[in-house]
Design a protein that fits this description.
The structure is a homodimer of 237-residue chains. Chain A is mostly helical. The first copy, chain A, has helices at residues 17-31, 38-44, 49-55, 59-75, 83-100, 104-108, 115-130, 135-166, 170-182, 190-194, 196-201, 204-220. Chain A is built from 12 helices and no strands. At the A-B interface, helix 5, helix 7, helix 8, helix 9 and helix 10 of A face helix 5, helix 7, helix 8, helix 9 and helix 10 of B. Chain A binds a DNA duplex (19 and 19 nucleotides) through helix 2 and helix 3.
Chain lengths: 237, 237
DNA sequence: ACCTGAACACCGTTCAAGT
DNA sequence: ACCTGAACACCGTTCAAGT
């Protein structure tokens, strides 16, 4: 019996960092964070696991690059209108990206190449300037907005991941959280319990924008610089 | 040759969920997130990996429980003074917990038992009420503060993790980020570049509190309900 | 009821060897 | 310069078997 060549088709295009990242995004979208493995990736690209390491440093690098590619694609497509509208648009874009690609949340905070965060910071910051915020207040304003956007995004990503794992759709998931909240101890958790009803029916995107608007109001109202010159925060590190 | 019993000392106390979680926290503090493995844990507890599964569902459960234990311990020790001061204290406590236990960040968003988040939400929410915020505005106010606190915490945790991995102390780390920012393209990243100097010398805790204060100002300034009754957010999901 | 530890089905990463 | 794929050193989790 003559030894036949294996039935795998050989890839015609050569490997590249871009093609590897593109395949990674697809794998992540299809099967979630667990779906991205060097074996699955190399099979999809008809190569060996080692080949990938010629183009990519390690798995963290790969995940960050995938995240950055997806974020960059969305952020770059946002039209600049009024500062406030643009900030809302940037924030909502990120929200929607994570809604479509829940795995983006986990790589977002990475500052290896400091890419995804810096892209968002820059967009937000330019609008802070356009808003006429004083130079010395821009850092605080941009920081607060960034942290808020990041916080909502992380929470949203976690929710989506969990819902996916449990095979729940949005309303089933909200119902489950709402039910858990309403069963909390009434003495210890009065506030959270009072939010249970609202949790079930709220609209994440609307609430997200409401938070942005709240922070924008804070940015517009002048800080009470009189109080004691500089607030001293006691250190307990 | 008589078969001697193996030289491992047998544990005298029986296993329990609590002792497993305590050992996990210690392992995480000592060696970071990679340090927590069922093998390392079972060796430390003088048992087999399988024994742990009698008390703990899986690794996610274990990580969440460790996170919740650490958060609960800190949160519970906060004295209630004025609403604003208490909110600042809760926020700073979480900040400091993550500074000491950077791994807390990764398990924080988990809502499996919905524990760590709910603890913080409740504390913050009670102070929102004490602040006299109208019932219908409490959700937005608490949500904005929570997202902000979470966002800063996640970012801080990521920074600490990265600094630890690279063996950098705080000022070396800030210098590295600052240097990276000042080398960004001047046309594309004017805002981020302008922040490079400030990045090098800023105090995270002070900035953190400044952001809290900014959001509190937003909470105090009334939302312009007039505008168009309810803001309609176009969906592009 | 609780524990043991071998075994299973995976991982990321390396590296000698090929083209 | 770039690719191959076996091998290494790990993982989390399961489960028959023990006490």
């Amino acid at each position: 019996m003559a030894k036949r060549p294996p039935a795998v088709q050989r890839r015609e295009e050569s490997l590249s960092r871009e093609s590897i990242i593109e395949a990674s995004i697809d794998l992540l979208d299809r099967n979630g964070e667990h779906g991205l493995t060097f074996r699955a990736l190399s099979e999809r690209l008809s190569t060996g696991p080692g080949a990938i390491y010629w183009h990519i440093a390690n798995k963290t690098d790969l995940l960050t690059a995938a995240c950055d590619t997806v974020v960059a694609r969305t952020i770059s497509g946002i039209a600049v209108t009024t500062p406030e509208e643009t900030i809302r648009a940037v924030a909502l874009s990120l929200f929607d990206v994570i809604d479509e690609h829940p795995w983006v949340g986990s790589a977002l905070t990475s500052i290896e190449g400091l890419s995804p965060i810096v892209r968002i910071l820059e967009r937000v910051g330019q609008q802070i300037r356009a808003l006429g915020v004083a130079d010395e207040d821009q850092w605080a304003a941009a920081g607060a907005l960034m942290a808020y956007i990041l916080g909502v995004s992380m929470q949203n990503a976690a929710n989506r991941q969990l819902a996916r794992t449990r095979g729940l759709n949005r309303s089933d998931f909200l119902a489950a959280v709402s039910a858990a909240w309403s069963q909390l101890n009434a003495k210890e958790y009065p506030f959270t319990r009072s939010l249970a009803g609202r949790m079930r029916h709220h609209d994440d995107r609307e609430d997200f924008v409401a938070g942005i608007d709240l922070i924008l109001r804070g940015i517009h109202s002048p800080p009470p610089r009189s109080r004691q010159q500089q607030k001293r925060v006691p250190r307990t590190r």
